[in-house]
Write a structure and sequence with these properties.
The protein is mainly beta and 130 residues long. It contains 1 helix and 7 strands; from the N terminus they run H-E-E-E-E-E-E-E. A hairpin with a 5-residue loop joins strand 1 and strand 2.
Length: 130
């Protein structure tokens, strides 16, 4: 009986999150997605080549990842970035073998920095599915 209220609270808070693409900082202190190329492979999975611009300063403040999410905020794939790109801006890294649900025609790609999280500009990607 004590577990049920906890589960109800968890379910309500989890379903309440929805991603808002119009709220972001355009400062280069935040990781900005500047370009995305999405391609579907023969097996139906997707590859995303994502370009990011950020004022990387070294190990204490750098773009440390990016992810593909749906409009409800569910992560479909995450690419960890293992080091700063101080002298390589913007830079592009790829992530493949991402499964996108059949009913999903658009996704959001957002970048993360080690200091400010996911508060930079994200990009909506239209998927041209065959």
């Amino acid at each position: 009986m004590k577990i049920l209220p906890f589960l109800l609270l968890f379910t309500c808070s989890a379903s309440a999150t929805k991603f808002d693409v119009s709220t972001y900082s355009n400062s280069l202190e935040f990781a900005q997605v500047v370009d995305v190329m999405a391609t579907q492979k023969a097996n139906g999975h997707w590859c995303f080549a994502t370009s990011i611009r950020h004022n990387d300063e070294g190990w204490e403040h750098y773009a440390d990842g990016w992810e593909v999410i749906d409009f409800s905020g569910m992560s479909l794939g995450y690419r960890k970035l293992h080091h700063p790109h101080v002298n390589e801006q913007p830079f592009t890294r790829s992530l493949c073998d991402i499964e996108i649900p059949k009913e999903t025609n658009k996704v959001i790609v957002r970048a993360k920095c080690s200091k400010h999280g996911f508060d930079g500009k994200a990009m909506v990607v239209n998927l041209n599915k065959d």
